[in-house]
Amino acid sequence: EVENPNADQEVEENLDRIRPDLQEAFDRREAGHDINRPEAVAKRKKRGHRTARVNIEDLCDEGSFIEYGSVVMAAQRRRRTEEDLIKNTTGDGMVCGLGHVNGDLFTNEQSRVMAMSYDYMVLAGTQGKMNHAKKDRMFEIAEQNRLPTILFAEGGGGRPGDTDTSGVAGLDCLAFTYFAQLSGLVPIIGITTGRCFAGNAVLLGCCDVIIATEDSNIGIGGPAMIEGGGLGIFTPEEVGPMDVQVPNGVVDIAVKDETEAVSVAKKYLSYFQGTT
Fold it and tell me: Minimal CA–CA distance to 134: which of 193, 103, 192, 178?
């Protein structure tokens, strides 16, 4: 038998110790949480709006939401540092995952949903490369598993600032196709508040029901596109306000705020979840 010469130097391993690489993973996942973005959260509150995470937390049964793709960043590594991207673009402007809604009334299977929200605190809720990739995945899962889908659509549409792309005009995504394939297959609920323009408005318009707060503005073209097309200069609040979109029939259910919007969405969804 050979004696271990380092026996006296051995120390007991601390099994509760978090390895540096695991801690880094935890930090990346938590970077996009509201508690770590106080300035952005304060701006939302000042405008009278809730954050994407608060809305999803209110929508889903407590503890049921499982997030997908929380650590992705905007595809802008060619012009921004990784530290900047982690701090300011974690999630790439989209919070999405699986959860349960109305689980107190229906079975575990009946209450399953796909919940997703553009995050206006990240690049104004615009649609970027990784943002689209997340939607591709989530809509595919919703189709495969026949999951009702709830979309919070506030945001500014396609994002021109991504640099880490294939150079095909940002059209190499299937999100819009996948979303259209959900039509008639599962209930699709759209909710918006504030500004909802361009690609965000396209997805909203594909929903079975559109719920909008009284301060919403909905338009396929935002102010920049309208001005670029030579149609004049308008503020965001002048584009598709509710006193136009509700009488036009664009909005199905007008509500006061996001709290009421979530409540109405849960009630609407209950009509398709089964008998109680």
Answer: 178
- R_g of the chain, CA atoms, integer Å: 22
Residue pair 225/185 in contact (Cβ under 8 Å)? The answer is no
As given in the structure block, the two tokens for residue 88 are 């300011």
User: pLDDT tens digits for 219-263?
Assistant: 998 898 899 999 999 999 999 999 999 999 999 999 999 999 999
Instruction: Report the phi/psi class of residue 102: left, alpha or beta, with left for phi > 0 and alpha for psi in -120 to 50.
Output: left
Q: Say if pTM beats, i.e. exceeds, 0.85.
A: yes
Euclidean distance between CA atoms 196 and 153, whole angstroms: 6
Task: Check the CA dihedral 248-205-32-121 and report its sign.
Answer: negative
Q: Cα angle vertex 125, ends 120, 128, to 5°?
A: 150
Burial code of 142-151, b = ≥16 C-beta within 10 A, e = fewer?
Answer: bbeeebbbbb
Residues 6+ apart with CB under 8 A from 271: none
Enumerate domains of the chain plus CATH numbers.
57-270 (3.90.226.10)
